[in-house]
């Protein structure tokens, strides 16, 4: 650990010192920007080997990931202050059994929510891969221009998946576009860009009447699914859907919906955009080129999702 690598804090650390005459001993250094040579007079002439320097740098990298699990490799590289490639940072973290993972996210739920979700799963425990393809899944999602907090990853050790995620702070409102879509086993709707605030009446006028109605009419025996967002449960929306077969959906259970994974796939592929117009065009292009086999695979996973819901007692699942 060379002087230009010492941290400016008052933490005490043990370091191996080479004493005159070739003997070794353990010194306790107080890092205040320099070694206290009054207490450790021989530390002034301390010679640090490349191996010790490497190990100290590795400890510093690991310490940063433990203090702030959302820290990025570029931030670590800047803080270390020496030329170091991302692969070296990853190797140090891997040696400490730390891997980059998506934080486990689950909406807070009450015992009542979990009980209702469990009952929903039990009622559909016998549905199989011939039943779920009849369901038309729908959802909205927001694509932002710039960094998306939903894409943040955290450094985790094995067994820490369910640790509480770190607080993700928004410094300002992020511009973006809100889009809506439906998926079915053999088809999908156009991707609709939603302008302004979505109300129950706008949901009927801009989504249900021009898109959902014709889409369901083209599918024999289709069952329409939507979550419990306020525009969806508004009386005007429920009145429009009264002649359609709908699938009741448990509250606070996004992990059950295959559409959430469609959004995830699209956001993983999002290129850098220079304007909201570019963002909108990119989302539309990604949606148009999403393989139908991906959608079928997600819908085929519904029996497993239901089984996981039951096994979790109506609580959050690994999906």
What is the topological layout?
Elements: E1 8-18, E2 24-32, H1 50-67, H2 73-80, H3 86-95, E3 99-101, H4 111-123, E4 135-144, E5 154-156, E6 176-183, E7 192-194, H5 200-217, E8 223-225, H6 230-233, H7 235-240, E9 246-247, H8 259-268, H9 276-288, H10 292-300, H11 302-311
Parallel strand pairs: 4-8, 8-9
Antiparallel strand pairs: 1-2, 3-5, 4-6, 6-7
Helix pairs in contact: 4-11
Radius of gyration: 27 Å
Mean pLDDT: 80
The number of helices is 11
In one word, what is the shape?
A: globular
Structural class: alpha/beta
The description of the largest β-sheet is: 5 strands, mixed
DSSP strand count: 9
Helicity level, as a percent range?
25-40%
Order of helices and strands: EEHHHEHEEEEHEHHEHHHH
| Strand order in the largest sheet | 7-6-4-8-9
Low-confidence stretches: 1-37, 42-48
N-end to C-end Cα span: 44 Å
Beta-strand content: 15-25%
Structural write-up:
The protein is an alpha/beta fold and 319 residues long. It has 11 helices and 9 strands. The strands form 3 sheets. Strands 7-6-4-8-9 form a 5-stranded mixed β-sheet, with helices on both faces. Strand 1 (8-18) and strand 2 (24-32) form a beta hairpin. Helix 4 (111-123) crosses helix 11. Residues 1-37 and 42-48 have low confidence and may be disordered. InterPro entries: RNaseH_sf, Tc1-like_DDE_dom, Transposase_5. Pfam families: DDE_3.
